[in-house]
Amino acid sequence: MVGDNMKANVAVTASRTALYQGHVGKTDALEIELLLESLYRAYEYDFRGYARPSLTRRLALAREHFGCRSYSQLQDVLLHEPAALPKLLGFLTVQVSEMFRDPGYFRALRQEVVPHLKTYPSLKVWVAGCGAGEELYSLVILFREEGLENRTLFYATDIDRDALKEAEAGIYSLDRMASFTTNHRRSGAKESLSEYYHAGSRAAVFDKALRKRTVFAEHNLVSDAVFAEAHLISCRNVLIYFDRPLQRRAIGLFREALVWKGFLGLGDKETVHFTGHDETFESFVRKERIYRKRGDL
Protein backbone atom coordinates (compact mmCIF):
# COMPACT_ATOMS: atom_id res chain seq x y z
CA MET A 1 0.00 0.00 0.00
CA VAL A 2 2.81 2.40 0.88
CA GLY A 3 4.53 1.55 -2.37
CA ASP A 4 1.33 2.19 -4.32
CA ASN A 5 0.87 5.59 -2.66
CA MET A 6 4.44 6.53 -3.43
CA LYS A 7 4.03 5.56 -7.07
CA ALA A 8 0.82 7.58 -7.27
CA ASN A 9 2.51 10.65 -5.76
CA VAL A 10 5.43 10.36 -8.17
CA ALA A 11 3.03 10.04 -11.09
CA VAL A 12 1.09 13.14 -10.03
CA THR A 13 4.30 15.09 -9.48
CA ALA A 14 5.61 14.08 -12.90
CA SER A 15 2.34 15.04 -14.61
CA ARG A 16 2.45 18.48 -13.04
CA THR A 17 5.75 19.23 -14.76
CA ALA A 18 3.69 19.78 -17.92
CA LEU A 19 2.31 22.94 -16.27
CA TYR A 20 5.62 24.74 -16.84
CA GLN A 21 5.17 24.91 -20.62
CA GLY A 22 8.86 25.29 -21.31
CA HIS A 23 9.54 27.96 -18.67
CA VAL A 24 12.11 25.66 -17.04
CA GLY A 25 13.74 22.35 -17.92
CA LYS A 26 12.23 19.01 -16.92
CA THR A 27 14.69 18.50 -14.07
CA ASP A 28 14.02 21.92 -12.57
CA ALA A 29 10.27 21.40 -12.99
CA LEU A 30 10.41 18.09 -11.14
CA GLU A 31 12.56 19.58 -8.37
CA ILE A 32 10.12 22.47 -7.95
CA GLU A 33 7.19 20.07 -7.65
CA LEU A 34 9.03 18.11 -4.97
CA LEU A 35 9.88 21.36 -3.18
CA LEU A 36 6.22 22.43 -3.18
CA GLU A 37 5.16 19.01 -1.91
CA SER A 38 7.74 19.21 0.89
CA LEU A 39 6.58 22.70 1.83
CA TYR A 40 3.03 21.40 2.15
CA ARG A 41 3.87 18.22 4.07
CA ALA A 42 6.38 19.78 6.45
CA TYR A 43 4.69 23.12 7.15
CA GLU A 44 1.15 22.85 5.70
CA TYR A 45 1.67 25.78 3.33
CA ASP A 46 0.11 24.72 0.05
CA PHE A 47 1.38 26.47 -3.09
CA ARG A 48 0.71 23.49 -5.34
CA GLY A 49 -2.26 25.24 -6.93
CA TYR A 50 -0.38 28.44 -7.83
CA ALA A 51 0.16 29.31 -11.48
CA ARG A 52 3.56 27.94 -12.42
CA PRO A 53 5.11 30.74 -14.54
CA SER A 54 4.96 33.41 -11.82
CA LEU A 55 5.72 30.89 -9.06
CA THR A 56 8.83 29.75 -10.93
CA ARG A 57 10.12 33.30 -11.20
CA ARG A 58 9.71 33.85 -7.47
CA LEU A 59 11.34 30.55 -6.59
CA ALA A 60 14.29 31.46 -8.81
CA LEU A 61 14.74 34.65 -6.79
CA ALA A 62 14.52 32.65 -3.56
CA ARG A 63 17.09 30.15 -4.80
CA GLU A 64 19.47 32.98 -5.63
CA HIS A 65 18.88 34.62 -2.23
CA PHE A 66 19.70 31.44 -0.35
CA GLY A 67 22.74 30.75 -2.54
CA CYS A 68 21.40 27.41 -3.76
CA ARG A 69 22.55 25.84 -7.01
CA SER A 70 19.36 23.84 -7.47
CA TYR A 71 15.78 23.67 -6.25
CA SER A 72 16.65 20.39 -4.53
CA GLN A 73 19.23 22.25 -2.49
CA LEU A 74 16.63 24.88 -1.65
CA GLN A 75 14.32 22.08 -0.54
CA ASP A 76 17.06 20.75 1.73
CA VAL A 77 17.47 24.21 3.31
CA LEU A 78 13.73 24.47 3.82
CA LEU A 79 13.44 21.08 5.51
CA HIS A 80 16.49 21.33 7.75
CA GLU A 81 16.48 25.04 8.57
CA PRO A 82 12.93 26.00 9.65
CA ALA A 83 14.11 29.57 10.28
CA ALA A 84 14.34 29.94 6.49
CA LEU A 85 10.58 29.45 6.08
CA PRO A 86 9.43 33.06 6.73
CA LYS A 87 11.92 34.39 4.20
CA LEU A 88 10.83 31.86 1.59
CA LEU A 89 7.18 32.76 2.20
CA GLY A 90 8.14 36.37 1.58
CA PHE A 91 9.26 35.40 -1.91
CA LEU A 92 6.24 33.22 -2.63
CA THR A 93 3.56 35.63 -1.44
CA VAL A 94 3.36 38.75 -3.57
CA GLN A 95 3.39 41.87 -1.38
CA VAL A 96 3.71 44.55 -4.05
CA SER A 97 0.89 47.05 -3.68
CA GLU A 98 0.13 50.67 -2.86
CA MET A 99 -2.62 52.62 -1.19
CA PHE A 100 -5.68 53.29 -3.34
CA ARG A 101 -4.10 51.25 -6.14
CA ASP A 102 -6.28 51.66 -9.24
CA PRO A 103 -8.12 54.77 -7.97
CA GLY A 104 -11.08 54.05 -10.24
CA TYR A 105 -11.88 50.98 -8.15
CA PHE A 106 -12.08 53.01 -4.96
CA ARG A 107 -14.01 55.78 -6.69
CA ALA A 108 -16.55 53.15 -7.80
CA LEU A 109 -16.80 51.91 -4.22
CA ARG A 110 -17.54 55.46 -3.04
CA GLN A 111 -20.08 56.25 -5.72
CA GLU A 112 -21.76 52.92 -6.43
CA VAL A 113 -21.25 50.55 -3.49
CA VAL A 114 -21.21 52.80 -0.40
CA PRO A 115 -24.82 54.02 -0.91
CA HIS A 116 -25.97 50.40 -0.57
CA LEU A 117 -23.71 49.71 2.40
CA LYS A 118 -25.16 52.71 4.21
CA THR A 119 -28.48 50.88 4.46
CA TYR A 120 -26.99 48.36 6.92
CA PRO A 121 -26.85 49.12 10.67
CA SER A 122 -23.53 47.26 10.93
CA LEU A 123 -20.99 46.03 8.39
CA LYS A 124 -18.21 43.51 8.00
CA VAL A 125 -15.45 43.90 5.43
CA TRP A 126 -12.97 41.16 4.60
CA VAL A 127 -9.65 42.12 2.98
CA ALA A 128 -8.38 38.73 1.82
CA GLY A 129 -4.68 38.55 1.02
CA CYS A 130 -4.06 41.93 2.66
CA GLY A 131 -0.26 41.77 2.37
CA ALA A 132 1.41 44.66 4.17
CA GLY A 133 -1.90 46.46 4.63
CA GLU A 134 -2.04 49.08 1.88
CA GLU A 135 -5.50 48.04 0.69
CA LEU A 136 -6.79 47.66 4.23
CA TYR A 137 -5.86 51.23 5.17
CA SER A 138 -7.29 52.47 1.88
CA LEU A 139 -10.65 50.92 2.73
CA VAL A 140 -10.65 52.06 6.36
CA ILE A 141 -9.86 55.64 5.28
CA LEU A 142 -12.55 55.51 2.60
CA PHE A 143 -15.09 54.20 5.12
CA ARG A 144 -14.13 56.94 7.58
CA GLU A 145 -14.59 59.60 4.92
CA GLU A 146 -17.97 58.14 4.00
CA GLY A 147 -19.15 57.95 7.61
CA LEU A 148 -19.14 54.14 7.80
CA GLU A 149 -16.05 53.40 9.89
CA ASN A 150 -17.71 53.27 13.30
CA ARG A 151 -20.28 50.69 12.21
CA THR A 152 -17.78 48.48 10.37
CA LEU A 153 -15.60 45.59 11.52
CA PHE A 154 -12.65 44.90 9.22
CA TYR A 155 -10.97 41.52 8.82
CA ALA A 156 -7.46 41.62 7.34
CA THR A 157 -6.09 38.18 6.49
CA ASP A 158 -3.01 36.81 4.80
CA ILE A 159 -0.97 33.62 4.64
CA ASP A 160 2.24 35.50 5.51
CA ARG A 161 2.67 36.18 9.24
CA ASP A 162 5.42 38.75 8.66
CA ALA A 163 3.25 40.67 6.21
CA LEU A 164 0.47 40.78 8.79
CA LYS A 165 2.89 42.26 11.32
CA GLU A 166 3.76 44.99 8.81
CA ALA A 167 0.09 45.64 8.19
CA GLU A 168 -0.64 45.92 11.89
CA ALA A 169 2.27 48.34 12.36
CA GLY A 170 1.02 50.67 9.61
CA ILE A 171 4.46 52.07 8.81
CA TYR A 172 5.46 52.91 5.23
CA SER A 173 8.46 54.55 3.63
CA LEU A 174 8.09 58.28 3.03
CA ASP A 175 9.10 57.91 -0.59
CA ARG A 176 5.83 56.05 -1.19
CA MET A 177 3.61 58.82 0.13
CA ALA A 178 3.57 60.85 -3.08
CA SER A 179 1.99 58.04 -5.10
CA PHE A 180 -0.32 57.11 -2.21
CA THR A 181 -1.48 60.73 -2.00
CA THR A 182 -2.10 60.99 -5.75
CA ASN A 183 -4.10 57.78 -5.76
CA HIS A 184 -6.11 58.92 -2.74
CA ARG A 185 -7.02 62.19 -4.41
CA ARG A 186 -8.03 60.44 -7.64
CA SER A 187 -10.28 58.09 -5.69
CA GLY A 188 -12.56 61.01 -4.86
CA ALA A 189 -11.14 61.72 -1.42
CA LYS A 190 -12.66 64.45 0.69
CA GLU A 191 -9.57 65.13 2.79
CA SER A 192 -5.79 65.07 2.41
CA LEU A 193 -4.13 61.71 3.05
CA SER A 194 -1.71 63.50 5.39
CA GLU A 195 -4.60 63.77 7.87
CA TYR A 196 -4.19 60.07 8.59
CA TYR A 197 -0.48 59.66 9.30
CA HIS A 198 2.46 61.22 11.10
CA ALA A 199 5.58 61.78 8.99
CA GLY A 200 8.88 60.96 10.65
CA SER A 201 12.36 61.40 9.23
CA ARG A 202 12.13 58.31 7.03
CA ALA A 203 8.69 56.77 7.45
CA ALA A 204 5.02 57.59 7.68
CA VAL A 205 3.20 56.07 10.65
CA PHE A 206 -0.54 55.75 10.15
CA ASP A 207 -2.91 56.66 12.96
CA LYS A 208 -3.53 53.80 15.41
CA ALA A 209 -7.19 54.70 15.43
CA LEU A 210 -7.42 53.39 11.88
CA ARG A 211 -6.77 49.90 13.25
CA LYS A 212 -9.13 49.98 16.23
CA ARG A 213 -11.87 48.11 14.36
CA THR A 214 -9.62 45.66 12.51
CA VAL A 215 -8.95 42.00 13.25
CA PHE A 216 -5.65 40.75 11.80
CA ALA A 217 -5.44 36.99 11.27
CA GLU A 218 -3.62 34.32 9.32
CA HIS A 219 -5.83 32.71 6.69
CA ASN A 220 -4.98 30.55 3.71
CA LEU A 221 -7.34 30.73 0.73
CA VAL A 222 -5.88 27.44 -0.47
CA SER A 223 -6.83 25.29 2.50
CA ASP A 224 -8.83 27.20 5.14
CA ALA A 225 -12.60 27.46 5.48
CA VAL A 226 -14.71 30.62 5.31
CA PHE A 227 -13.21 33.24 7.60
CA ALA A 228 -16.25 35.37 8.45
CA GLU A 229 -19.53 36.68 7.10
CA ALA A 230 -18.98 39.84 5.07
CA HIS A 231 -20.90 42.57 3.29
CA LEU A 232 -17.86 43.45 1.18
CA ILE A 233 -14.89 41.27 0.27
CA SER A 234 -11.91 42.89 -1.41
CA CYS A 235 -9.36 40.43 -2.78
CA ARG A 236 -7.44 42.17 -5.50
CA ASN A 237 -4.47 40.89 -7.51
CA VAL A 238 -4.31 37.62 -5.60
CA LEU A 239 -6.28 35.24 -7.81
CA ILE A 240 -4.06 35.95 -10.82
CA TYR A 241 -1.39 33.85 -9.11
CA PHE A 242 -3.74 30.85 -8.72
CA ASP A 243 -4.49 28.14 -11.25
CA ARG A 244 -8.11 27.63 -12.33
CA PRO A 245 -9.11 25.01 -9.69
CA LEU A 246 -7.70 27.20 -6.92
CA GLN A 247 -9.49 30.27 -8.29
CA ARG A 248 -12.69 28.21 -8.23
CA ARG A 249 -12.09 27.33 -4.59
CA ALA A 250 -11.38 30.93 -3.54
CA ILE A 251 -14.45 32.33 -5.30
CA GLY A 252 -16.46 29.56 -3.63
CA LEU A 253 -15.24 30.75 -0.23
CA PHE A 254 -16.23 34.31 -1.05
CA ARG A 255 -19.65 33.17 -2.21
CA GLU A 256 -20.21 31.41 1.13
CA ALA A 257 -18.94 34.36 3.16
CA LEU A 258 -20.93 37.10 1.45
CA VAL A 259 -24.31 38.13 2.77
CA TRP A 260 -27.29 38.25 0.44
CA LYS A 261 -26.49 40.90 -2.19
CA GLY A 262 -22.99 41.39 -0.77
CA PHE A 263 -20.15 42.82 -2.87
CA LEU A 264 -16.91 41.29 -4.16
CA GLY A 265 -14.03 43.38 -5.51
CA LEU A 266 -11.31 41.75 -7.64
CA GLY A 267 -8.23 42.99 -9.51
CA ASP A 268 -8.49 44.35 -13.04
CA LYS A 269 -7.21 41.09 -14.56
CA GLU A 270 -9.42 38.84 -12.43
CA THR A 271 -12.96 37.57 -12.90
CA VAL A 272 -15.56 35.23 -11.42
CA HIS A 273 -16.14 33.79 -14.88
CA PHE A 274 -14.83 30.32 -15.72
CA THR A 275 -14.75 29.44 -12.01
CA GLY A 276 -18.05 27.60 -11.85
CA HIS A 277 -19.64 30.42 -9.84
CA ASP A 278 -20.78 32.65 -12.71
CA GLU A 279 -24.46 32.31 -11.86
CA THR A 280 -23.88 33.29 -8.23
CA PHE A 281 -22.66 36.79 -9.10
CA GLU A 282 -23.76 39.64 -11.28
CA SER A 283 -21.44 42.31 -12.60
CA PHE A 284 -22.10 45.49 -10.60
CA VAL A 285 -19.36 47.82 -11.87
CA ARG A 286 -17.97 45.91 -14.83
CA LYS A 287 -14.97 48.12 -15.57
CA GLU A 288 -13.67 47.92 -11.99
CA ARG A 289 -14.37 44.19 -11.49
CA ILE A 290 -16.90 44.74 -8.72
CA TYR A 291 -19.46 41.96 -8.45
CA ARG A 292 -22.60 41.51 -6.40
CA LYS A 293 -23.91 38.25 -5.01
CA ARG A 294 -27.27 37.65 -6.61
CA GLY A 295 -30.28 37.94 -4.37
CA ASP A 296 -32.50 35.51 -6.27
CA LEU A 297 -30.52 32.36 -5.44
Account of the protein in words:
This is Putative methyltransferase Cher3. Keywords: Methyltransferase, Transferase. With 297 residues, the chain is of the alpha/beta class. The protein folds into 2 domains: 2-92, no CATH class; 103-293, Rossmann fold (3-Layer(aba) Sandwich), CATH 3.40.50.150. Helix content is 42%, strand content 18%. The strands form 2 sheets. Strands 6-2-1-7-8-10-9 form a 7-stranded mixed sheet. α2 (26-43) runs parallel beside α4. Mean pLDDT is 91; it is low at 5-14.
Helices and strands, with pairings:
Blueprint: H1 2-16, H2 26-43, H3 52-65, H4 71-80, H5 85-92, H6 103-117, E1 123-128, H7 134-145, E2 152-158, H8 161-169, E3 171-173, H9 177-186, E4 197-199, E5 203-206, E6 214-218, E7 230-235, H10 244-257, E8 258-266, E9 281-285, E10 290-293
Parallel strand pairs: 1-2, 1-7, 2-6, 7-8
Antiparallel strand pairs: 3-5, 4-5, 8-10, 9-10
Helix pairs in contact: 2-4, 3-5
